[in-house]
Design goal:
Layout: E1 2-6, H1 12-15, E2 20-22, E3 26-29, E4 38-42, E5 48-54, E6 59-65, H2 73-89, E7 100-105, E8 114-119, E9 122-127, H3 130-134, H4 136-147, E10 153-156, E11 173-177, E12 182-186, E13 189-193, H5 208-217, E14 222-226, H6 232-239, E15 244-249, H7 252-265, E16 272-276, H8 279-283, E17 292-295, H9 307-324, E18 329-335, H10 342-356, E19 360-366, E20 385-391
Parallel strand pairs: 1-4, 9-10, 14-15, 14-17, 15-16, 17-18
Antiparallel strand pairs: 1-3, 2-6, 4-5, 5-6, 7-8, 8-9, 10-11, 12-13, 18-20, 19-20
Helix pairs in contact: 2-4, 5-6, 9-10
Length: 392
Amino acid sequence: MGKIVLKAGKDKSVFRYHPWIFSGAVQSKDSDIVEGDIVKVYGVDGKYLATGHYQIGSIAIRILTFKDIEINQEFWNERIQQAWNLRMAVGVANRPDNNVFRLVHGEGDNLPGLVIDYYGGVAVVQFHSVGMYMVRENIKEALLTVLGEHLTAIYDKSEGTLPYKAAINPENGYMWGKAENFVALENGLKFNVDWLEGQKTGFFVDQRENRALLEHYAKGRDVLNMFCYTGGFSFYAMRGGAKSVTSVDVSARAIELANKNVELNFPGDSRHSAYAEEAFEFLNKSKGKYDLIILDPPAFAKHQNVLNNAIQGYKKLNKKGFEVIKPGGILFTFSCSQVMTRDLFRQTVFTAAANTGRKIKILHQLTQPADHPVSIYHPEGEYLKGLVLYVE
């Protein structure tokens, strides 16, 4: 196992149990270490600090453990077992009305670089680091060992999540078993899940509790669901008694899926309409038409160097939402950009509100659900931020 030595004074984050070591902290490394290797990290005094995956880039090591232990199949089994135990403890893995949830959430489950979503027996895996990709057979065996009869297939969807310079040429495909035409059940509502062609792992499971909250505000309202993807918020609004629901997404494929999902839950219901259209073009002709609006855009900033552009994007979007919503309306607004902190997002929405001059009150501050846990040592894991606002 390769050895990496940190510069003097650069071990403080390790003592705070932060799971990342940045390249600027590295003093030296063994010459034969390549991206994806499991390495041991030491201080300049020779003291062992951590073991993790080495990678090329600003984050040099993603830490797997702070204990000097062997990284073998038993290690991976134990980590997957801990993740499964948490989902059982929070009640998402054993409910008759819900069969979709996140099984592994990277650093939040002490498995940096790994995301696994569970769809009623199918584990859809995304490797976000070369190191995790290199141990994919260990992850597969751990899933089979821990989930047992709860597992019917494992699908690897890492083609678009791994560093393109790594030269490992990942291909999406089944690692074990096979499943097709899956209909998910979330809080009693049905959704088509397409892990072959859909975004992320096929569905956005992180909005489950926020969608349920929206349901309670929907009765008698005209609802606009912007960036609707497969229509999740729309169907909750319909079950909540919305007067009308409009779903909008720039992707025609997303609108097709949204319409199919409406038919699964509310066949022949005339309250729903859907449009494949650019967001601002649609909002520009929507003034005074809606009294419940959802703004749930894709991440405007995935990296720190584009944060300022993202701030302007969120500001512009929320300002437009405040301008078009009816008096007495409720606006659900979100950011899934990891580099956009909770305080910064709230400040950005505040600026947008101030520019409109409307009176606005915060009803709820939202985040990701318990199956997307955030390590207390890794606040960057809190990527989903949301506000529910009352607009007078």
